[in-house]
């Protein structure tokens, strides 16, 4: 009799546990569906506000969507959209914060390349000129180099290369700005090193010709004739028709005459003589 009672109690307990498990599962599924609906609603509201131009509210809604349902595939996209909202209205600091957080939180997400590009652009847009702090320039270049290295076959890689070319122009300008300062102060060695950096690291920029000429000039002044000639030959080989090459040529040839300038002077002289000659008959 006692054993039958135990069996009945065990059956009742089992039925109760099963029913509770089903109920819990159903409640969990309902909650998950509800959270997904709330997330979807918040995301749509964020997108609407972004279209309307209220980027701060849009970013807030995207953040809300991410927090409501973080395990959803849309959570990572919400994080990027929050960053994009900030970027569109020049809130670069906020955009950078959101993008760096996204890259840490979702390291394997499929849109990482876009996040790197947007992050690079957020730094890039803060570049002022060669006289300002280099941090944003270097941070921007790092992101674009990451894209070229890790995602070379994407559409972003081509634009990243173009941006790096522009960044190198600014970095070269910075080196030239400092080098010219040292040159003005007759600090030959620091100036020499800066001009060498331009030739070595930024040889595709517009500053290469002048940097080579300055290396010719400074080495000649320091008595390093062979070194000076080496840079003069490089300048002549690559930029023989440039004014900087002509200036370098004058360093070794004090009697050098610029044919074009001499011709222009001769023409001016002839015009002046003609005017004087005509004046005799007035």
Work out the number of β strands.
0
Poorly predicted runs of 5 or more residues? 23-31, 255-264, 276-282
**Overall 3D form:** elongated
Give the helix/strand class: mainly alpha
Largest sheet: none
Question: What do you see in this structure?
Answer:
The protein is mostly helical and 282 residues long. 81% of the residues lie in helices and 0% in strands. The protein is built from 12 helices and no strands. It has helices at residues 2-52, 55-68, 73-88, 92-105, 112-124, 135-150, 155-184, 188-201, 208-221, 225-239, 243-252, 259-279. Helix 5 runs parallel beside helix 7 (155-184), helix 9 (208-221) packs antiparallel against helix 10 (225-239) and helix 10 packs antiparallel against helix 11 (243-252). It is elongated. Residues 23-31, 255-264 and 276-282 have low confidence and may be disordered.
Name the features.
disordered C terminus; 282 residues; single chain; mainly alpha; 12 helices
SSE map:
Layout: H1 2-52, H2 55-68, H3 73-88, H4 92-105, H5 112-124, H6 135-150, H7 155-184, H8 188-201, H9 208-221, H10 225-239, H11 243-252, H12 259-279
In short:
With 282 residues, the protein is an all-alpha fold. The protein has helices at 2-52, 55-68, 73-88, 92-105, 112-124, 135-150, 155-184, 188-201, 208-221, 225-239, 243-252, 259-279.
